[in-house]
Amino acid sequence: MQYCILVIDLRFMGTSRRKFIKISALGFGGVAVAASTMESLGVNAYLEGLALENSLEKLKQTATYCEVCFWKCAGWVHSDNDGNIHKIIGNDIDPHCNGRLCPRGTGGVGMYTDTDRLKKPLVRKVVNGEETFVETSWDEALTLIATKMKDIKSVYGAESFGLLKHGSPGSHFEHLFKAYGSDSIAEPAYAQCRGPRETGFGLTFGSWVGSPEPTDIRDTKCLVLIGSHIGENMHNSQVQEMSDAIDNGATIITVDPRLSTAASKSQHWLAIKPSTDIALLLAWMNVLINENLYDKEYVEKYAFGFDELKAHVQQYTPEWAYGVTTIKPEEIRKTARIMAAAAPATIIHPGRHVTWYGDDTQRARAMAILNGLLGSWGRRGGFYFKEKISIPKYPHPPYPTPKWGWEEIGEKYPFAEMGITNELIQASIPSEENEYPIKAWLVAGTNLNNSIPNKKLLEEAIEALDFMVVVDTMPMEITGYADVVLPECTYLERYDGIRSATNREPSIALRMPAVEPKYDSKPAWWIAKQLGERLGLQDFFKYEDFKEVIAWQLKQMGTSLEEMEKIGVKKFPRESGPMYLDEGQDHEFYTDSGKIEFYSTALESQGFDPMPKYTRHPEPEPGYYRLNYGRSPMHTFSRTVNNPNLNDLKSENDLWINPKVARILNLKKGQYVWLENQDGVQSSFPIRVRVTERIRWDSVYMVHGFGHNNKKLGRAHGKGASDTQLISQVAIDPIMGGTGMRGNFVKILTENPAKTVEV
Amino acid sequence: MRYAMVIDTKKCVGCSDCVVACQTENNVPIGYCRDWITERVEGTYPNLELELRSERCNHCENAPCVRCCPTGASHIIDGGIVLVTPNECIGCGACIESCPYDARFQHPDGYVDKCTFCHHRLEKGQLPACVSVCPTKCMYFGDLDNPNSEVSQLLKARKHKTLAPEAGTKPHVYYLI
């Protein structure tokens, strides 16, 4: 067998490229000065200097929680009186980070220092016959938006103003929109990301997975990852707990066509053929049931539809699955037995970004059912019963009731539990059948161009809009389509809502400004309040500063702003009962049957398969490779690529290609190529080839979020390729409306297909 | 006292938090780094081994950079930490050439820079910045002369290696494998 060793020093792969600098500043004069300084300060001058600097250092520490990703780890911002942020360190008592931020949190300071930030409100105007952005005052920008909001409301109804959002700023605008009368709200975090698993697990256990996931990885004996690449997705406490699990000798089983970082830490890496995961999951069920390895007592007590499931999975033998997945039958049996031996301390991890092939809710169901068979829901080392503390609502008048909203817009998808972005976008395209016409958008903190697949549809919708506002900290691509752009200040410069998330024990975290907002940027709460006042909704914003809201809420919760400023994070005792089921304990699940639904009557009633089935998905034509994409630990989506600190770690993405494919196509490591997908869509920018054994020969892989085409993003523009751009085929999940994005295939072009494209 | 760093390659996910934490802690200019991630892939698909590890100055007992320094700017202090005194350094680059680990670089101010084991933090009883932030807790730091220290215990219990042992440098950074 051919054997190869490849060592890559990531400094020279673009992770931390070190510049070659000629010596210019130091000549003989420099030496003379140095010598005299040395005499006066002694040999250890350097260290003494450092020690002195440290003793003089009086850095202020301000409580925050991170906004570089959605994990929202709490930390301390170390800054001086001149407004320089020196570093950001995790809060020791925070369950999201345990005192250790990830590279993005540590490098969060770059969000603040990035000189490419949006600086002034911008309004689209026609100057000399050409559309351009003109800097304007906040008052003018806000008044214009408020006027448009009134116009839309009087002509079409407030419902026709949609909100597309992500993260902390989104909640301030959600309040504004609900007060204004619109519930036409959606975020890519659902239909482009974790929606299917929330619906799939919800239908099975009657409970969302939520964030952070209630996976008891710390105490697990067997962690099963289905395409989830923990470690490359830097979901902090999960990464930490996976490391603990490795220390504790847990078995890790990873199913992934690519040798992910997690796969490399696994005792069993199942290098599955892409798009066949459900076949493997069904075969595992077959083994667990037919070999009597499932948790009989648990299933009998808590589960509904076992007999139907048993009959259903008889057809899915490991031998059958071998032909579909390319995983050998003995490997399927062996791993099923390992899972059963470790149960109930076994986790079939729900994953996070799970919108892959359009039958994703059913795949999530299959994963949930496996957890049910293993008895791991509500058990130590499996899934714990999560708890969070609710934050008291700051008093305001009741919201008006809109005539329609996200539920009606997404009515084709009966099990959608949040707004479906792609449906809201579709509703923005005028047509006879469109009962829910969306006429304007406010986009807050989400770069739709790099998160919504099917660019054509997005552009058609944007083209049809009467009005569009974008609120962001950076000139992301979406800002280029706006009528008004509002510069939000970064999380390091503002107050935001108190963080309360589900965990083993409830906790809250405070975010307060460490420094004054740079440029003419403003916090989202201020923007929402200003708009509210201009719309006559001042009763919904009865405060001068959002700080008052936080102070009031904290007081209701038995603490205070003063206390939280000192501790940053506060834990509260559990009130919902124990984290795990006691032996033989009665427990009602929030499903139709009150039990864990192996057989879903809810799905059946809407005409869907009550139990998951395997469906064949499209495969690449000769000469094409399946486009897989994922995360790198130093970036969050497309939002961090321009961050100077994080860009320094990884400034562009690579196209992973198997050496066999590289040989056939005569591609060399480091060469730049272009991609063209099955619909003839070409990548705007070239991408660097990485020849690696870590990827199968039928697919290529790239990290998501690169290939920015806005020149205002000085570091990110033109660097790498955008996977989103190449995703023009979308398989919609009929159950909840998610956009399956892994059915796109690319061929590799060695010449720039569009010579006219500006690079 | 012999300071040593022990890095568990079984846990490192190569996230580069050590790199960015070092940069912010030590004010390393953007575009430079005192530590970095190396990835080693062995085998052919799907029979593969992947090792990820965080690398830096090995603070060698037998340090070629110190031996070749013409001004004495590169020196070893108590605890075995190899340091560069910037104002003694003439930027000749001999140490950069001599280092088998490519751990040194020319700072834009002209002197040669590299990992200090965060000596300034050790003085305050803090761990090096990289060790203190690592989300996987794959990095350990302590005194090899103390048989009860975490690093001594780990090296006693686990299989380990150093980098380029053939260079005879006696590194103080160990990798658990």
Automatic annotation (TrEMBL), chain B:
The reply to whether 4Fe-4S figures as a keyword in the UniProt entry is: yes
Query: Which parts of the chain are coiled coil?
Result: none
Among CDD domains, the record links this protein to: PsrB
Source organism of this protein record: Maribacter luteus
Asked if 4Fe-4S is a keyword of the record, the answer is yes
Record's protein name:
Tetrathionate reductase
The cross-references to InterPro entries, in alphabetical order and at most eight, read: 4Fe4S_Fe-S-bd, 4Fe4S_Fe_S_CS, ET_IronSulfur_Cluster-Binding
Taxonomic lineage of the native organism = Bacteria, Pseudomonadati, Bacteroidota, Flavobacteriia, Flavobacteriales
Query: What GO MF terms are annotated?
Result: 4 iron, 4 sulfur cluster binding; metal ion binding
Q: Which UniProt keywords apply?
A: 4Fe-4S, Iron, Iron-sulfur, Metal-binding
One matching Pfam family is Fer4_11
4Fe-4S ferredoxin-type domain mapped to chain residues:
3-32, 48-79, 80-109
Q: Which PANTHER family match?
A: PROTEIN NRFC, PROTEIN NRFC HOMOLOG
